[in-house]
Protein backbone atom coordinates (compact mmCIF):
# COMPACT_ATOMS: atom_id res chain seq x y z
CA UNK A 1 0.00 0.00 0.00
CA UNK A 2 1.30 3.46 -0.95
CA UNK A 3 0.35 6.74 0.76
CA UNK A 4 -0.15 9.69 -1.64
CA UNK A 5 -1.24 13.10 -0.38
CA UNK A 6 -3.49 11.71 2.37
CA UNK A 7 -4.66 8.83 0.17
CA UNK A 8 -3.97 5.14 0.68
CA UNK A 9 -3.47 3.32 -2.63
CA UNK A 10 -3.08 -0.38 -3.35
CA UNK A 11 -1.70 -1.22 -6.82
CA UNK A 12 -2.44 -4.49 -8.59
CA UNK A 13 -0.68 -5.23 -11.86
CA UNK A 14 -1.53 -8.31 -13.88
CA UNK A 15 -4.22 -10.03 -15.93
CA UNK A 16 -7.68 -8.46 -15.83
CA UNK A 17 -10.47 -10.12 -17.81
CA UNK A 18 -9.27 -10.07 -21.44
CA UNK A 19 -6.44 -7.60 -20.78
CA UNK A 20 -3.18 -9.54 -20.38
CA UNK A 21 -1.53 -6.84 -18.26
CA UNK A 22 -3.41 -4.00 -16.58
CA UNK A 23 -3.08 -1.79 -13.53
CA UNK A 24 -5.85 -1.55 -10.95
CA UNK A 25 -5.52 1.08 -8.24
CA UNK A 26 -7.74 0.81 -5.18
CA UNK A 27 -7.71 3.99 -3.11
CA UNK A 28 -9.20 5.48 0.05
CA UNK A 29 -8.75 8.95 1.54
CA UNK A 30 -6.71 8.61 4.73
CA UNK A 31 -9.51 10.01 6.92
CA UNK A 32 -12.17 7.74 5.35
CA UNK A 33 -10.32 4.41 5.24
CA UNK A 34 -12.82 1.57 5.33
CA UNK A 35 -15.81 3.73 4.37
CA UNK A 36 -17.36 1.93 1.38
CA UNK A 37 -18.53 5.08 -0.42
CA UNK A 38 -15.04 6.58 -0.22
CA UNK A 39 -13.46 3.70 -2.16
CA UNK A 40 -12.19 4.65 -5.62
CA UNK A 41 -10.93 2.18 -8.23
CA UNK A 42 -8.86 3.28 -11.21
CA UNK A 43 -7.97 0.99 -14.11
CA UNK A 44 -5.30 1.53 -16.74
CA UNK A 45 -4.15 -0.70 -19.59
CA UNK A 46 -0.86 1.23 -19.65
CA UNK A 47 1.32 -0.53 -17.06
CA UNK A 48 4.17 1.84 -17.87
CA UNK A 49 2.44 4.61 -15.96
CA UNK A 50 3.30 5.14 -12.32
CA UNK A 51 0.64 5.17 -9.62
CA UNK A 52 1.01 8.96 -9.34
CA UNK A 53 0.60 9.39 -13.12
CA UNK A 54 -2.57 7.28 -13.23
CA UNK A 55 -4.13 9.18 -10.32
CA UNK A 56 -3.07 12.49 -11.92
CA UNK A 57 -4.78 11.57 -15.20
CA UNK A 58 -7.97 10.58 -13.39
CA UNK A 59 -7.85 13.76 -11.29
CA UNK A 60 -7.74 15.87 -14.46
CA UNK A 61 -10.56 13.83 -16.01
CA UNK A 62 -12.71 13.58 -12.88
CA UNK A 63 -15.25 16.22 -13.96
CA UNK A 64 -15.74 14.29 -17.21
CA UNK A 65 -16.23 11.05 -15.25
CA UNK A 66 -18.82 12.77 -13.03
CA UNK A 67 -20.64 14.14 -16.07
CA UNK A 68 -21.00 10.65 -17.54
CA UNK A 69 -22.01 9.05 -14.23
CA UNK A 70 -24.65 11.74 -13.62
CA UNK A 71 -25.83 11.50 -17.23
CA UNK A 72 -26.26 7.74 -16.89
CA UNK A 73 -28.00 7.84 -13.52
CA UNK A 74 -30.20 10.90 -13.92
CA UNK A 75 -30.49 11.63 -17.66
CA UNK A 76 -30.77 8.01 -18.91
CA UNK A 77 -27.66 8.18 -21.12
CA UNK A 78 -27.19 4.43 -20.79
CA UNK A 79 -30.80 3.62 -21.75
CA UNK A 80 -31.33 5.78 -24.80
CA UNK A 81 -30.49 4.33 -28.23
CA UNK A 82 -29.81 6.49 -31.24
CA UNK A 83 -28.50 5.08 -34.49
CA UNK A 84 -28.00 8.05 -36.79
CA UNK A 85 -25.18 10.53 -36.45
CA UNK A 86 -27.63 13.44 -36.49
CA UNK A 87 -29.71 11.77 -33.76
CA UNK A 88 -26.60 11.26 -31.62
CA UNK A 89 -25.53 14.88 -32.05
CA UNK A 90 -29.00 16.10 -31.11
CA UNK A 91 -29.19 13.80 -28.10
CA UNK A 92 -25.76 14.91 -26.84
CA UNK A 93 -26.73 18.55 -27.32
CA UNK A 94 -29.99 18.14 -25.40
CA UNK A 95 -28.37 16.09 -22.64
CA UNK A 96 -25.50 18.59 -22.30
CA UNK A 97 -27.97 21.47 -22.21
CA UNK A 98 -30.03 19.81 -19.47
CA UNK A 99 -26.84 19.13 -17.49
CA UNK A 100 -25.77 22.77 -17.91
CA UNK A 101 -29.20 24.10 -16.88
CA UNK A 102 -29.11 21.94 -13.73
CA UNK A 103 -25.66 23.31 -12.87
CA UNK A 104 -26.66 26.93 -13.54
CA UNK A 105 -30.29 26.99 -12.32
CA UNK A 106 -29.53 29.55 -9.61
CA UNK A 107 -27.62 31.95 -11.87
CA UNK A 108 -24.27 30.73 -10.57
CA UNK A 109 -22.54 27.38 -10.89
CA UNK A 110 -23.83 24.76 -8.46
CA UNK A 111 -23.52 21.00 -8.18
CA UNK A 112 -25.51 19.08 -10.79
CA UNK A 113 -27.33 17.09 -8.07
CA UNK A 114 -28.56 20.31 -6.42
CA UNK A 115 -30.01 21.66 -9.67
CA UNK A 116 -31.44 18.30 -10.63
CA UNK A 117 -33.18 18.05 -7.24
CA UNK A 118 -34.49 21.63 -7.64
CA UNK A 119 -36.10 20.83 -11.02
CA UNK A 120 -37.47 17.49 -9.80
CA UNK A 121 -39.17 19.35 -6.93
CA UNK A 122 -40.59 21.99 -9.30
CA UNK A 123 -42.01 19.29 -11.58
CA UNK A 124 -43.55 17.48 -8.60
CA UNK A 125 -45.08 20.75 -7.35
CA UNK A 126 -46.60 21.45 -10.79
CA UNK A 127 -48.01 17.94 -10.98
CA UNK A 128 -49.58 18.28 -7.53
CA UNK A 129 -50.99 21.71 -8.39
CA UNK A 130 -52.62 20.30 -11.57
CA UNK A 131 -53.96 17.35 -9.61
CA UNK A 132 -55.37 19.71 -6.97
CA UNK A 133 -57.15 21.79 -9.64
CA UNK A 134 -58.45 18.63 -11.30
CA UNK A 135 -59.92 17.36 -8.02
CA UNK A 136 -61.22 20.83 -7.06
CA UNK A 137 -63.14 20.97 -10.35
CA UNK A 138 -64.99 17.77 -9.47
CA UNK A 139 -63.00 15.01 -11.15
CA UNK A 140 -64.03 11.49 -10.20
CA UNK A 141 -61.68 9.14 -8.39
CA UNK A 142 -61.32 7.05 -11.57
CA UNK A 143 -60.37 10.15 -13.58
CA UNK A 144 -57.79 11.13 -10.95
CA UNK A 145 -56.25 7.64 -11.09
CA UNK A 146 -56.07 7.89 -14.89
CA UNK A 147 -54.34 11.24 -14.64
CA UNK A 148 -51.84 10.00 -12.04
CA UNK A 149 -51.32 6.53 -13.44
SS strand fraction: 15-25%
Unreliable runs, pLDDT <50, ≥5 residues? none
Q: Mean of the pLDDT scores?
A: 87
- Count of DSSP-assigned helices: 4
Describe the structure.
- With 149 residues, the protein is of the alpha+beta class.
- It has a domain of 69 residues.
- A four-stranded antiparallel β-sheet has the order 1-2-3-4, with helices on one face.
- A hairpin with a 2-residue loop joins strand 2 and strand 3.
- The longest helix is centred in the middle third of the chain and has 25 residues.
- The mean pLDDT is 87.
Write the layout of secondary structure elements.
Blueprint: E1 2-4, E2 7-16, E3 19-29, E4 40-44, H1 51-75, H2 85-103, H3 112-136, H4 141-148
Helix pairs in contact: 2-3
Keyword list:
four-stranded antiparallel β-sheet, 4 strands, 149 residues, alpha+beta
Briefly, what is this?
This protein has helices spanning 51-75, 85-103, 112-136, 141-148; strands at 2-4, 7-16, 19-29, 40-44. With 149 residues, it is an alpha+beta fold.
